[in-house]
Write a structure and sequence with these properties.
Layout: H1 3-11, H2 26-31, H3 36-45, H4 48-57, E1 66-69, E2 77-80, E3 83-84, H5 86-96, E4 103-108, E5 114-118, H6 119-135, E6 143-147, H7 152-164, E7 167-170, H8 177-187, E8 191-195, E9 197-200, E10 203-206, H9 208-216, E11 224-228, E12 242-244, H10 245-250, E13 261-262, E14 266-272, E15 280-285, H11 286-300, E16 309-312, H12 319-331, E17 335-339, H13 350-358, E18 362-365, H14 367-376, H15 379-382, E19 391-395, H16 401-411, E20 418-421, E21 455-458, E22 470-475, E23 485-486, H17 490-498, E24 505-513, E25 519-524, E26 528-531, E27 534-537, H18 538-546, E28 551-561, E29 565-574, H19 582-595, E30 604-607, H20 621-628, H21 644-653
Parallel strand pairs: 4-17, 6-7, 6-8, 7-14, 8-11, 11-12, 16-17, 16-18, 18-19, 19-20, 29-30
Antiparallel strand pairs: 1-2, 3-13, 4-5, 9-10, 14-15, 15-23, 21-22, 22-24, 24-25, 26-27, 28-29
Helix pairs in contact: 4-11, 5-6, 5-7, 5-12, 6-7, 8-9, 11-12, 14-16
The structure holds adenosine-5'-monophosphate-propyl ester (PRX).
Adenosine-5'-monophosphate-propyl ester (PRX) binds near residues 272, 397, 425 and 507.
Amino acid sequence: MSESAQRQGDAFENLLHEERRFPPSEEFAAQALAQPSLYEEARSRGTEFWADQARACLSWETDFTQTLDWSEAPFAKWFVGGKLNAAYNALDRHVEEGRGDRMAIHFEGEPGDTRSYTYAELTESVKKAANAFESLGLQKGDRVAVYLPMIPEAVITMLACARIGAVHSVVFGGFSADALRSRIDDAEAKLVVTADGTYRRGKPSALKPAVDAALEKEGSTITNVVVVRRNNEPVEWTEGRDVWWDDVVDSASSEHTAVAHDSEHPLFILYTSGTTGKPKGILHTTGGFLTQTAFTHKYTFDLRPETDVFWCTADIGWVTGHSYVAYAPLINGATQLMYEGTPDTPHQGRWWELIEKYKVSILYTAPTAIRTFMKWGRDIPKKFDLSSIRVLGSVGEPINPEAWMWYREIIGGGKAPIVDTWWQTETGAHMISPMPGVTRTKPGSAQVAVPGIAVDVVDEMGQSVPNGSGGYLVVREPWPSMLRGIWGDPERFKQTYWSRFDDMYFAGDGAKKDEDGDIWLLGRVDDVMNVSGHRLSTTEIESALVSHPSVAEAAVVGAKDETTGEAVVAFVILRGSAKDDDDIVTTLRNHVGKEIGPIAKPRNILVVPELPKTRSGKIMRRLLKDVAEGREVGDATTLADNTVMQQIAASLRK
Ligand code: PRX
């Protein structure tokens, strides 16, 4: 095992002594959608289990003739020959089958404005948007960059693209103009859909200027920018390129026929950080993605579409907002809540107020949020009626047992089952998770593979480790919602995920099996950090830092942080003429904000005279991590110059 994996293993050793167990209540188990027989069925049906789910969850215009074509592994084709339309499955069919009056989305804006859409209303809105986009020249296969806040138009835009067969590439609103431009260029997008802005902490916050800045440089592939009016702040306008959403969508016809696309037709690209400087455009296609997201949404959350109110708090800019906001809940005909703002505006009880108001019954959020609420104190949620909650989900990073217990006791009233779901942008849908009503849960563990999924923990050589041991998390068999590649870079796809071990998908996470064989996730084993559940690459931030004229060299590490899980800590060597003062730290933080986005700004930037390197010139990040986490520095004997760590310590004392 690599040094970092070993260290993580040691750090989490305590976790494995976690002995609390929470079997499902008899009452929940008796009526749960998932029953132990589901695992049995998955085992006995093999790949055909997914054919069953594809037919149960979706309406196919043309049925598929082959469940899986793995002949060109690792490039998979699922549900070969099948044809379907994602938007038809999410919308029209519910209306046709008499569910048009069911509430699809309750929207609550940060300032308190509300909107709601029934399935019939949402279908009409998506048809209009599809017509509007087509009138701007958008065609099947074209790419659309979506740079929107958490407002219903985000979902409407994604589904309108899917309806046409255009491929959306959502870029999180917290990414900078430069990051947006590089994603537009990589995907050669034709259209940008954005908004004048949004609201953040009670104030208007602009988005359109970032799009203007992104498109300033000549040579972009964008022909039009569609602008949703959200905060009514004045915006700059480029005639001929910019159009108001109101002008093109409101006047468009509400008649639009959804044409069925091939099961493997690209649905979306979503960029995510890897171990190199350049984000990867993860490609997902239609049939497999929709099957596994809908299946997991139904069983992992024990979804009752007629009565539940589902709330996934993830932003549309991340995969969780794709799979479990834009697609699965609508495919399953559920009612969901969508909230635009921050949890502490106008007060720290806003989420709990929303749960009380909309009677949210399934809450899906990230450990970083739970830890923040713990810090604010249990008295805040206690003021609200949370009795509607019956299932709680966690995603994005390992959940520490304390946060798990707090979530269960304070939010779940000591009885709602918690499902800790492990998955990735690349996996498209849940891969490891307890099933409510079946699994005896353990605080801090995601535990078992989803039925039909083959995960394992292996050693350096790719051998399955015995219970009680740790190693690397892998997936042994193809799964329906797996990424189909990296946009424009098939080699990188093979190299990143399929070259570490033979015939296995390497997830990049370390994991342990406990004595029962349950899986405990230990965090990344590569140069990817997880800050508040957001994936950031150390290399990408290092590249941003060295692109500043004052920086000669930079090394970035993820340091443990009580609230955000990890925090970005940067070590920089300045160029001769640059001065080490507070200004330079502020300048560099802002520079990273400009290059990547505010979410990537380092928590600390430490100016140092040297960086610790091995004789072959590799930076020993492990030693920097010790410094960043305030630990005694570990074994430094392999350094080319073993006085470097003393120099760093001396410069930090200054
Ligand atoms: O390290 C794992 C962590 O998040 C990574 C994937 O990040 P991203 O593609 O942004 O997707 C996040 C939302 C699905 C994984 O490699 N991760 C995600 N969920 C968990 C987790 N780590 C531990 N437990 C989880 N439940």
